[in-house]
Amino acid sequence: MINFNGTLTENPQFTAYNRGMLYGDAVFETIRYTSGKLTFWEDHYFRLMASMRILRMEIPMHFKLENLEEELLKVIEAEGLKTKSASVRLTVTRNEGGKYLPEDNGVGFYAFANELKNPFFLLNEESYEVELYKDHYVNADLISTLKTSNKIIHVTGSIYAKENGYANCLLLNTNKAVVEALNGNLFLVKGSVIKTPPLEDGCLRGIMRKQLIEMLKKLENYTIEETSISPFELQKADELFVTNAIMGIQPITKYRKKTYANKVAKELLGKLNAQARLAK
């Protein structure tokens, strides 16, 4: 079931002139739903609004926090997931018309939900080997920090990872700094210092990234640094882990000849679950 501009339908009517399809002219949010609420919904909402403004989309009057939340809950209930956990994707596309230059900066939306097995973030301790993906590079700019529908580097990187037996790949920017993983933000642990690439390097403005940075700033036993990460630092790290809004924290177990622990990831995941229960 799809919520297509406020109407529930199994057959949404997308045309050949959809700008999301033609030009990647769309932004999206993927939100975890559990315990009857959308986890970190306010953060997702305000990131979506900021992204729309940056892309010069007109924000409709009815795109209020409560209204969009109601539309997402509508599709969750229609899928029979109200008492379960789910992954919900909300996509906003610019209206049809024009070529590169739009004729209309108004927008429409569609949303769907898929069931998740677990109501909480769980630590996956299975083998999770990664490698650098160097066929294409992320631009170190503002556009790269947005969650747009143009993710071709992540698509080709995912194919490369599968073909070569890796669980994930790490992306480099045009300055050859490590930016993020294919499906989330990267954190590096060395002693009591935890590093994550800065937004200026072109990494995604991730919701879990934001939550962890805020959490770590309050913990006395860790120091969080938003700083560029060189590929040479990866094998010197004690831990590496990836974060996103659906899985929470995914420890990396191996990169090239180096294997990693997951002590810090496990500790932070427990705190993240507690924070998620309290968040709006």
UniProtKB/TrEMBL annotation:
* Keywords associated with the record: Aminotransferase, Transferase
Top enzyme category: transferase
Q: Which reaction does it catalyse?
A: L-valine + 2-oxoglutarate = 3-methyl-2-oxobutanoate + L-glutamate; L-leucine + 2-oxoglutarate = 4-methyl-2-oxopentanoate + L-glutamate; L-isoleucine + 2-oxoglutarate = (S)-3-methyl-2-oxopentanoate + L-glutamate
Q: Name its pathway.
A: Amino-acid biosynthesis; L-isoleucine biosynthesis; L-isoleucine from 2-oxobutanoate: step 4/4; Amino-acid biosynthesis; L-valine biosynthesis; L-valine from pyruvate: step 4/4; Amino-acid biosynthesis; L-leucine biosynthesis; L-leucine from 3-methyl-2-oxobutanoate: step 4/4
Cross-referenced InterPro entries = Aminotrans_IV, Aminotransferase-like, BCAT-like_C, BCAT-like_N, Class-IV_PLP-Dep_Aminotrnsfr
Family per UniProt?
Answer: Belongs to the class-IV pyridoxal-phosphate-dependent aminotransferase family.
Protein name in UniProt: branched-chain-amino-acid transaminase
According to its UniProt entry, this protein's organism is Leeuwenhoekiella polynyae
